[in-house]
Design a protein that fits this description.
This protein has helices at 11-19, 79-86, 96-106, 130-142, 148-166, 169-181, 195-200, 203-213, 229-239, 293-303, 319-326, 358-371, 378-393, 399-413, 419-427, 431-441, 461-470; strands at 2-5, 37-41, 47-52, 58-65, 109-114, 119-126, 219-225, 265-270, 277-284, 305-307, 332-339, 344-352, 448-453. It is α+β, with helices and mostly antiparallel strands. The longest helix is centred in the N-terminal third of the chain and has 19 residues, at 148-166. Residues 2-31 have low confidence and may be disordered.
């Protein structure tokens, strides 16, 4: 068993910033005297990580697993999400009713979610009940019965969930965007899986996924809030000692995936019955560990989000929001920078009822993207950095948010940036950095486009791509 405290070193990015001193850094109160993260690696490879807030009476404990829908095949796509549902349907030690009564008796909240690269099971509980919560989580992870009857009943639940997701146009467009940007690759598949798979996934598929992916070296047990580190390590040694280990264990954050290929392409789902068109445009982004991660986040923050119904266009800092609002080109937009272990998507999601001017909407959006390569201003970069720090740091409110931050960072990169370190890296981004990443990722690059709704008036891909190229001259 190896015990350590997370190093304060930021590696190459921090050393580079230190070699190039910039303006004095502003300090956030949230980053001062921040509790220290402690980590311990058990003999079977399971990592235990805690951030103790001794005066807090509640805690969040959970297991972050380095496996999601990306670990599936075309035939088994949807298995990871199906397992998330089956986890609460009973174990060898507890029936579904026993699980529900036990959690309710503790006054705790038990939850789970699945993403393309992670599966998470966690509980929010009183500090005194951390051991019991760890026992419950370990039980559902290792001893779920996966009864055939429960599997059959859960199909309908997941299909209804899929129907609800299909009504959320943002989710629909972003799923389409993934499907064309990463064609015929694991990241291009949806998390819930196609209907045919939901109807055909069998108990053996679920058991096989657990055997392959639920291994100790690919898991992090996280505790945040009123959690004592040494105590949580003892609970983990007892509850997770029988977890299997991968045949070839890989350090956290180093899980190898087949090289992902970004494809510039488009998909359109025309539906003239809808009142608004929904358009997603993205270029290839960066992975979690990329040295360009924070500059890309700052550039995304420069564009930000805007919604006409909020009536704040004149007060927004984004030039794009002023252009779109003053010309009534869209109802709303949301910029995004989505990262995975080795790649990502950087782009914008637009909603408009001005169906006659969608070409103008894309023209001005892409023109602003191109401007980042040539003339981002000091003012907008500094403002974006402040907004980004508020988003990244001030959202660490409560033990669940902190546990999520710890688990996600350890699984994706093998280490966790403290809030102070995150603030430092954001503050270190300069106008020149924005120009550099814009030239690298945006300048005359192929993009993926997904459009749903009454999109007849949208120019075809080649015309939009040519318009993007013409902005360079």
């Amino acid at each position: 068993m190896v015990t350590s405290t997370l190093s304060a070193s930021l590696g190459r990015a921090l050393r580079s910033a230190a070699r190039s001193p910039r303006r004095p850094l502003r300090s956030f109160a949230t980053a001062v005297n921040y509790p220290q993260l402690q980590t311990t690696t058990l003999s079977n490879g399971l990592t235990v990580a805690t951030e103790n807030h001794p005066h807090v009476q509640t805690a969040t404990v959970g297991v972050w697993i380095d496996a999601g829908s990306r670990a599936e095949t075309d035939a088994t796509n949807g298995t990871a999400h199906f397992l998330e549902h089956m986890a609460f349907k009973g174990t060898k030690r507890r029936s579904q009713r026993d699980l529900e009564l036990t959690v309710e008796g503790l006054g705790a909240h038990l939850n789970a979610y699945t993403s393309r690269e992670q599966t998470v099971y966690y509980a929010k509980c009183f500090s005194k009940d951390v051991q019991k919560s760890v026992d419950i989580i370990s039980d559902i992870l290792q001893n779920s019965t996966l009864e055939e009857g429960a599997v059959e009943r859960e199909r309908d639940v997941i299909l209804r969930e899929q129907q609800e997701v299909d009504k959320q146009m943002e989710e629909v467009v972003l799923d389409h965007l993934h499907s064309i940007a990463f064609q015929s690759q694991p990241l291009g598949r949806t998390i819930l899986g196609p209907k045919a798979n939901i109807l055909s996934i069998k108990r053996d598929d679920l058991a096989s996924y657990i055997k392959t992916n639920y291994t100790a070296d690919r898991m992090v047990l996280v505790g945040a809030g009123g959690v004592d580190h040494d105590a949580l390590v003892k609970y983990a040694e007892s509850a997770f000692s029988s977890l299997p280990v991968s045949p070839n264990p890989i350090p956290l954050g180093r899980l190898a995936h087949p090289k992902t290929r970004f494809v510039g392409s488009e998909v359109r789902v025309r539906d003239d019955t809808q009142p608004t068109a929904h358009i997603g445009v993205a270029v290839e982004g960066v992975g979690w560990s990329s040295p360009d991660y924070y500059p890309m986040l700052v550039m995304q923050s420069i564009f930000g989000n805007w919604d006409r119904s909020l009536g704040a266009a004149g007060l927004m800092s984004s030039r794009l929001s002023h252009i779109i609002s003053s010309n009534n080109l869209a109802n709303s937009f949301m910029s995004f920078s989505t990262s995975y272990s080795d790649t990502g998507l950087w782009g914008i999601y637009l909603v408009t009822e001005n169906l006659m001017n969608m070409d103008d909407l894309l023209h001005f959006t892409l023109r602003e993207w191109t401007r980042m390569s040539m003339a981002p201003t000091e003012v907008e970069v500094e403002r974006a950095k402040s907004q980004l720090k508020a988003s990244l740091l001030l959202t660490l409110d409560g033990s669940t948010a902190i546990a999520e931050d710890i688990g996600r960072q350890l699984v994706t990169s093998g280490r966790r940036m403290t809030p102070k370190q995150t603030e430092f890296l954001v503050d270190s981004v300069t106008v020149d950095d924005i120009k550099r990443v814009a030239n690298k990722y945006l300048w005359d690059k192929d993009f993926a486009l997904a459009a749903v709704g009454p999109v007849e008036g949208l120019l075809d891909y080649n015309r939009i791509r040519a318009d993007m190229s013409s902005l360079l001259y």
